[in-house]
Amino acid sequence: MYLKNSKTIVIKIGSSLLIDDKKTIRQKWLLEFTKDIKELLNNKKNLIIVSSGAIALGCKKLNLNKKNLKLDKSQAVASIGQIELMNLFKKTFNKKKINLSQILLTLEDTEQRRRAINAKRTFDNLFKLGFVPIVNENDSIATSEIKYGDNDRLASRVAQISSADCLILLSDVDGLYTKNPKIYKDAKLIKEIKNIDLNIEQFAKKSIGKHGTGGMKTKIDAARICQISGCVMAIANGLSERPIKIISQKNNCTWFLPKISKLDARKKWIISSIAPKGELIIDEGAINALKKGKSLLAAGIKQVKGKFNKGDHIKILDKNMTEHARGLSSFTSDEISKIKGQHSNKIFELLGYITKSEVIHKDDMVEI
């Protein structure tokens, strides 16, 4: 049900799904997985794949043991493995005529608002172009202080900034159990979780696989991010062929339900920004457009107050200084001063370079 009702879906693949215990690439599994992706695309879903495996594939190519790697060497190994990883994806997905792109992210890219907005726009444009982005943590430059440390939390951040409806963490477990199912026969799979309390945390004893760095604890951390982002999240077993199809048919996984709607999460994210950096005074026509859910264009802007950068949080006021909305600016204050009152087709002429047509996009704005 959750998959069927989702428009944008993020799927995280763990290293153990790509490489087996003998360091052999599981090519048959990946080929079957592309059938799931093709089926979702045929159903008009927007898809993002977050994949581990760069360091593991780099170690395989260089015949190194991942556990013995120091940070500086692991960064070099990651840059080698990254090519191996994307070549593997491209070769396999080409067989189903699925177009892929690659996005490398670090922690700062999702923590800084401006970078997060740019990432969201990139995802949106890739969806329009019919491409599936493959997201990886940028292991070749990320330091231990700023690394996610696992791709579970990275996937949840990607789901958050892309306004995804659903995140699926594919791993080597069916989901969250009341006990360790490998030890206790009476362990029960928890199908749905609304609140992550102490009991849930106790169930999530950290376990580390041979190739991946993420255990159940990191998946719970990811679920917390999804819950406050209005996104449903599943922990599911990806080792079987066609894992997404199995989730749809058997629902043999653990679902974490969001605490608030996606729209409320987006509004909360914008409205809870630190003190606004500036103000825009707009005319009556622009105010009426905002009330109809339109974006703010340069033509309706009468005055710019304050000094701010792209992505900064600003107020939108009328001539009587009554606040009507808040949003994230797509332009700097200096740029808006040059284009205010002008039609969007004049922006290139006035600034000398191509940029967005909306000063504040409707998705980045909340009415007060």
Notes on the protein architecture:
Strands 3-4-2-1-5-7-8-6 form an eight-stranded mixed β-sheet, with helices on both faces. A five-stranded mixed β-sheet has the order 11-9-12-13-15, with helices on both faces. A two-stranded antiparallel ribbon has the order 10-14. It starts with 7 loop residues before the first strand and ends with a strand. The chain folds into two domains: 8-267, 3-Layer(aba) Sandwich (Carbamate kinase); 274-367, Archaeosine Trna-guanine Transglycosylase, Chain: A, domain 4. Residues 206-214 have low confidence and may be disordered. It has helices spanning 15-18, 27-42, 54-62, 71-94, 107-111, 113-129, 151-161, 198-203, 216-227, 243-250, 262-271, 284-291, 333-339, 347-351; strands spanning 8-13, 46-51, 100-105, 132-137, 166-171, 192-193, 232-237, 254-256, 278-282, 296-297, 301-306, 313-317, 323-328, 358-360, 365-367. The longest helix has 24 residues, at 71-94. The chain has 14 helices and 15 strands. It has 368 residues and is an alpha/beta fold. Helix 2 packs across helix 4, helix 3 packs across helix 4 and helix 7 runs parallel beside helix 9. Strand 12 (313-317) and strand 13 form a beta hairpin.
